[in-house]
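Query form — protein Protein PsiE

QUESTION: What is the three-dimensional structure of this chain?
INPUT:
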Amino acid sequence: MVRHRKDMTLVQLVPRVLQMVLNLSLVFLAIILSTLLVQELIIFGKMLFEAKSLDHQLFLANILLFFLYFEFITMIVKYFKEDYHFPLRYFLYIGITAMIRLIIVDHDHPLNTLFYSLVILILIIGYFIMNLTPRERPESRWFFNK
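ANSWER: The structure tokens for Protein PsiE are given below.
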């Protein structure tokens, strides 16, 4: 006997449609970010081969911008590989890289640089705590094994 799938109710259809819209949007965003990543590589080439005097701060800021694009693309790939879930550690990587870039680009005010450094320290401490914390709690294993 062949079972026929029942017609989907609105409650079942809405999340699927929204998930599909989200997935298509993320694919489109990944294409845009990939284009920007290639543009950054072209800018690197121009800076290295055309400039007689290289502005090291600008070059380093562009490298960090390149890594921001790279990390966002990696996060989108991980989203699809991990069953529609963004790993928290990638947000921390992006935050740390963005703050380092901000320090390099905007280091004129010492107090702001100190605040940016404190933000980086907080993000690193959060990453350290996240890695120390087991994914499965011992209490949950004990509870379900009864």
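ADDITIONAL NOTE: The chain has one domain: 13-134.
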